[in-house]
Amino acid sequence: MDNSICQVYEDEIQSLEEEIKLLAEKYEESQQESTFFSDEEILMSIKSFQREFQGQSKGHESPSDLKAQLESLETDLSFLMKFTGIQFTSHSKRTVEKTTNRTVRKHRLSGNCHSLSFQLEFQLLEMQNKETVSAVITDLSIIMESGEDSDVSKFVSSTEEHGNLLTFFRSLSSYAEWYEHRRCTFLHFK
């Protein structure tokens, strides 16, 4: 009886060691395939993009100027989140394909809008021709907690088919705001 109990424990230990090994490999793969950005890195990227877009490559700016600009961008971001109700909780991207004039990146976003949560997964195809860069969204997949609302399901399907993220976020903001009002009203009458 002692040997059988020891054998069961040894089998369980071996099973757990294999599971740990698989999880460690999975973790390593996810660390290599995804890049997570902090809020500061996102804001610095936005600033860098604005500088390139506006042609303001002045060289090195003083730390106080950068800090003031960062605070300004944080204020703008905070305002946009309050105004739209959309708050991103995570973002990851991975380069799928890269050539001299074509880049395909896979993006994953998750967040919430008022009390509704959402997840997006899409590929962004960027093509560069001499001086212009065009971007096209492909393979859009949206997951929302819409419950039993068939209109939301139809809207999500239509958005996935057309790949129009701007329309999705505009509609989500409006729908989530009114969804929250309806929910509060129904709670009031209960």
Automatic annotation (TrEMBL):
GO terms for cellular component: chromosome, centromeric region; nucleus. Keywords: Coiled coil. GO terms for biological process: CENP-A containing chromatin assembly. It comes from the Eukaryota. Residues 6-33 form a coiled coil. This is Centromere protein P. It comes from Eudyptes filholi.
